Structures
1.
Amino acid sequence: METIKTKETINTITRKGIHHMVDENNKIKKYKPWLGDMFSFLYDRIMEKSIFPKKFDGSLNKHFKILKKEFEKVHNKKILEFAAGSGNAVEFLNNDNIYAGVDISSGLLRIAKKKFDCYKFLNAELFVVNVCDTPFQDNNFDVAICNLSLNFFEDIDRFISELKRVLNEDGSFFCSVPIPENKKSQVKIRGKLYTKKELKKSFEKHGFIFKPLPYENGVLLYFITKQYDN
């Protein structure tokens, strides 16, 4: 069976099924999630009751329908999800895929672990790690995903470089992200919002083909990227 391959130089500690990166002193690396780990249990409710209807002016149900449509025929692939959150990928991914999810919140990943176990994913691993510095070997994944989180990443160029490193040459990246041109002027969305034009420029600079998808769901833009043919 295919497995998720990590760099030989990376050291980890696994606690309750979650992999944590450790430093040279064998201490777990700490990160600061936007919600805070002690409030992780509220994440799904906040997304459904507040973020989607009030901030995104969209529908969470429609969001999952879009994702299910895009991934319904994806089977037996190695998939990496950036900012995996509370594990809502179980709502749209088939459980025969090999899955790795990364997030800076160990609290959210503990919730995700329960979901992946419940949905009987045979090969799913979760890592507490920064999306710009993952522990995986080069050319390791067929598909990468990032939903609703790209605006929180501290360095989009560094993230895209990391994405390119871990994806296979013929791999694809699926993303949903709020963009400012779709936003109501009085609504405040956390993070840095990039326009569609800015996103296109950033991904093309790193050798990706940028393709917006024809879905409408409030402030969200859905797009896919693939690397240019070598």
2.
Amino acid sequence: MDSSIFTDKKIMPDVNDLPGALGNMYEMWQQLTGYVHLKYPAAMDLWNYSGDKYGWSFRIKDKKRAIVYLSPRDRFFKVTMVFGQKATDAILSSQVADTLKSELASSQVYPEGRVIRMDVMNETLLNDLKILIDIKISH
């Protein structure tokens, strides 16, 4: 099952729970969340319980929408982002990896936009994630 490592609805995770759950990837989590707050200082952090099937996830929001969703797993985390058409066009003409562009281009279009999900298991996606965050914030 593809669920959070935090599954108990009664216990909302906090920052102290993350190092043990994420291991070496906790630093990457910190880099990404710090980058969002650097680029958008008014961003708000929010833990959300999505039900028994998915458990707890973390989102960073602006006033109206989520900028990025982070879902802790055992020693890694998932990043999910949703992009409208203008942001999608910007990504497709950006320097992000072709595999991410292909995933985004082939993603189903929802009313909120296209969804891209990435497993973050090492630092190889860091630069691409920063580009995606920049595009999300600017669109």
